[in-house]
Amino acid sequence: MKKTVFIDGQHGTTGLKINERLSGRKDIELIEITEADRKDLTTREKLLNEADIVFLCLPDDAARQSVGLIKNKSVCVIDGSTAHRVAEGWVYGLPELKKEQRNLIKNSKRISVPGCHATGFIAMLYPLVARGIVSPDYPVTCHTTAGYSGGGKAMIADYQGENVPDYIKNPRPYSLALNHKHIPEMTKITGLAHTPIFAPTVVNVYNGEIISIPLVVPNLQKKLTAAEMRAVLAEYYAGEQFIKVMPYPADDYLKNGYMTFTDCNGTNNLEIFVFGNDERILLSARFDNLGKGASGAAVQNMNIILGVDESTGL
What one-character DSSP code corresponds to residue 173? Predict the structure, then answer.
């Protein structure tokens, strides 16, 4: 029997990508809402309670409002906003996080899709903290370079509008008060004792992302070389379909010594690289901020709930 799916916020960047990924599937039926009705509470409440699965692709306050409108306890909610990522009663929707995560997702009615930056950060750091290699007290810093689609419709309009000023075409560091909205989940899910310093930069490319974490080997709880750390991560993600740990050294996967930006675009893949030597290590994750960082992860979670192959539609 087909499951009914409603995308609340289907006209936004993530909603459109989810719709695209679900189009043509025979195991679900998409419930559509007209442009005229998308802000009508009565219509939205009706559709939210009729669906088997609801994707929320909304600003945080609107996502909380939608959850409040759902009275049907059988409705499964997959929230793409920041609103519930560290909230009690919500399961963090990163299936590869740990062995029991898929069962937690499958048996939950409330799943929060990780933030794009948080996805790469947690995928690299969580195994190292969990295995006692990086202490929870370690002063973690990281930097992200990401495409402008992560900023939603307003930022896309800034980059794609007429007479775009030169300053927008240049790389632009932001969130300089060091209070980016993904930091709470980055801190909580990895088990860090202190908030990491997170420095993101948006660039003049539509989608794609590279996030990097430097580590100083003498300050680690377990002193591993870059090659040894790569082996730990490779063992942790062995058999995973979407998270791959690249060989060390990674020279064959660089282009003239450069790590390229868009290689994972259009996929749900996340590639982890380990660079460095016996003293200094750089972890880098490359993925599509609209794929594994948003719509791909949302659909992967839905596939787990439905009990179908996780790659369906991906």
Answer: E
Hunting for tokens 């082996």 — which residue is that?
A: 231
pLDDT exceeding 70 applies to what percent of the chain? 100
Q: Among the options 76, 116, 142, 264, which is catalytic?
A: 116
What is the rounded distance in angstroms from the CA atom of residue 166 to the CA atom of residue 168?
Answer: 5
Q: How do residues 222-240 score in pLDDT, each as one tens digit?
A: 999 999 999 999 999 999 9
Whether the predicted pLDDT of 128 surpasses 90: yes
Q: Is 116 a catalytic residue?
A: yes
Contact at 8 Å (CB) between 78 and 56?
yes
The DSSP secondary structure of the chain, one letter per residue, reads -PEEEEEETTTSHHHHHHHHHHTT-SSEEEEP--TTTTT-HHHHHHHHHH-SEEEE-S-HHHHHHHHHH---TT-EEEE-SSTTTT-TT-EE--TTSSTTHHHHHHT-SEEEPPPHHHHHHHHHHHHHHHTTSS-TTS--EEEEEEEGGGGHHHHHHHHHSTT--HHHHS-EE--TTS--TTHHHHHHHHT-SSPPEEEEEEESSSS-EEEEEEEEGGGSSS---HHHHHHHHHHHTTT-SSEEEPPSS-GGGSBTTB--S-TTTTSS-EEEEEEE-SSEEEEEEEE-TTIIIIIHHHHHHHHHHHTS-TTTT-
Q: Are strands 197-203 and 141-147 parallel, antiparallel or unpaired?
A: parallel
